[in-house]
Please model this.
Amino acid sequence: MKKIEVRKSTDEKRIFKVIRRIFPKAFPRFSANDFYFVAKAGGRDVGFIHLIKKKGRILLQGVGVVENYRERGIGSMLVDKAIDYANQEKMDIMLKVRPTNCPALNLYEKKGFSIKKVRDTYILERKQFT
Ligand SMILES: CC(C)(COP(=O)(O)OP(=O)(O)OC[C@H]1O[C@@H](n2cnc3c(N)ncnc32)[C@H](O)[C@@H]1OP(=O)(O)O)[C@@H](O)C(=O)NCCC(=O)NCCS
Model:
């Protein structure tokens, strides 16, 4: 198993590239409120998490791991970084996910998120200090 590192990144080209490997049609935004962490395995970028600071909360806008590197704990490491960041900022985390996205739902549930609203997408929330 290659060594995995997850670090905050502001390198827009690099972030764009790894996101496009996972979501080929994505157009990531880079405003002052957007924060990205990138996962690296053996020198290669293999995952990202995108957080947006919005109205006193952290919106978890997206997380993804390159297909060949899934189910090795990288998604979990990325969400842990988001939680650390939210804890530092003393903010709750919100996110939207499709009810059919089983891997993502399992991951978020495991990390202490609870379902707040249900329509055709689920809205999940992770409260501070719960
Ligand atoms: C969701 C995603 C980021 C998970 O990343 P990952 O690196 O494979 O996740 P991990 O290996 O850290 O697994 C953490 C937990 O997620 C859940 N999980 C991961 N893959 C799963 C799968 N194929 N089926 C069911 N649950 C799964 C499990 O609960 C797992 O915990 P466990 O290993 O103790 O069972 C990855 O599947 C992905 O990139 N999917 C495509 C993009 C996407 O849908 N992103 C989320 C919406 S923006």
Notes: The beta strands are 4-9, 34-41, 44-54, 57-65, 93-97, 114-118, 122-126.
